[in-house]
Amino acid sequence: MFGDLLTRGMTVVALSSGRRVLQDPDGKQYDTVAEARQAVEAPDTGPRLTIRGHYKHHKAMTDDLKAQLESQGYRVSKEELSFGSSCGTGRCRPDIVYQAPDGKWGIIEVKTGDASLTFRQEEIYPQIDSGDAIPRGKVANTFGLKPGIPLKNQGYPNGIPIEIKTFPGAEQ
User: Which residue has the higher pLDDT, 162 or 3?
Assistant: First the structure.
């Protein structure tokens, strides 16, 4: 019934109460065969993160970069700005949009772990960089861009440069 566990390093230990438990090589004890089998078959190899855990990690990296930019005199959008495709379909929201002290704009996209650009980011980021993308929504307006008008038609003929920053993942 549990012989396979014994060949994997588990031992049967008799407690002073007379009860028997299974114990792994590190000394952790299991009351049932099912618990011991789960420990052997799915060992604890580190944190098991939820999407929320990954989001918190990504947000922490983004917030740190924003704070660094602000400490150097950059104006940084508090919220994500939306940019739409020049063909009118789809939109994306870069993680950080900033304006340098010299007035130049820039965008930073934060990627953690093995994350890559989304389909929309792959489509729209080159358009932001070329000036063809269209800012959307009130956040863009609040930050000084004109929603509905391509970047190249509002003073950014060469677009806004995008830098992708990659960091280790939450569990790395």
Answer: 162
Q: Which fold has domain 51-167?
A: Trna Endonuclease; Chain: A, domain 1 (3.40.1350)
Q: How far apart are CA 124 and CA 58, in angstroms?
A: 21
How distant is the alpha carbon of residue 37 from its chain centre?
Answer: 33
Q: Is 22 helix (H, G, I), strand (E, B) or coil?
A: strand
Q: Where are the domains of the chain?
A: 3-41, 51-167
Q: How many CA atoms lie within 13 A of 70 on its CB side?
A: 10
Query: What is the C-alpha separation between 139 and 128, in angstroms, rounded?
Result: 16
Q: Which residue did the predictor score with more confidence, 48 or 105?
A: 105
Report the pLDDT averaged over residues 130-155: 93
Following DSSP, what letter does each residue of 112-142 receive, concatenated? Answer: ETT----HHHHHHHHHHHHT--EEEHHHHHH
Threshold 0.70, pTM exceeds: no
Q: How far apart are CA 101 and CA 72, in angstroms?
A: 8
Give start and end residues of each alpha helix (H) in 19-90: 33-41, 51-71
CA 137 from centre of chain: 24
What average pLDDT does the structure give for the chain? 83
